[in-house]
Amino acid sequence: MTGPADAGRRITVRAGGTVLWRWPASGKVEIAVVHRPSRDDWSLPKGKLERGETAAACAVRETHEETGYLPVLGRPLGDVRYPVAEPVPGLKSVTYFAGRAEGGPFRPNHEVDELRWVRPAAALDLLSYDTDRDVVGRFTALPADTRTVLLVRHAKAGKRSAWPGPDEQRPLSPVGDQQAAALRVLLPLFRPDRVHAADVLRCVETVRGVADELGEPVAIEPTLTEAAHARDPEGTLRRLVAVARADGTPVICSQGAVIPDVLGRLAERAGLELGEIRAKKGSVWVLSFSTTKPLRLLAAHYLPTALPEPALTGREPTASP
To answer: What CA–CA distances, in Å, run from 275 to 136, 221, 301?
Structure first.
């Protein structure tokens, strides 16, 4: 978050972090708060982006380095910004994600000498900075354990006018190949377990690398194409909901005329106001659904690119879930 005094300041440092959470034996969610001896403060796990790294990858790496736990990313929690003096005066922008803890245990290191697992309310008292408290507030605004669906717009393909074959067989362009390679790095941070794609070659090629990492085939979805959606938009929505309802975290790749309409219908039924629903080629919507029946969309966050670009926007519900 920024104030009027920050207007016009240039972002000079970008970072990523997590609200690292777990379910202990008590059944009540705890989050990790770390002590940094160099600053003698208590904060959420976070750190600076390395060259060529996305905010999501940074959040996972830094959390693992500081805590020993490997976060499985879930709901994006937006950015916070605050003034810094180094390397030059400007703003530090930190992008946060909810992260379910796996692995461990914590071992003291040169960056963090103590880790405490505490209830979110206790974390608000322990944390040293209001910006971290704001992030914890965003985390507690929704249930910790949500069902994640990764809705992907296919990467760039060659020009339709230059392709002599059927449009559904038009392959990715060199830029599209780069976007698909970036998705192969980004999407596994959310720990998907299956991959679905509209029955269009450019959709399949966009997420094939993710499926290869899982050792699974891409599940072909004829009802998620633009043509099928034009004939029966409710049928397309029903199929997406069916995929989302199954256990696990699916990747679903579809087309530009499908994603805004389907997401708009989901949001309307859930009473959410998302504003303009964008779907650039190679972009991802991180959808957070309820884990209880009936399935309900709780939040939707847009990642405009999987390439190393820290821009991230998120929209939380403006109506009660």
So the answer is: 25, 28, 12
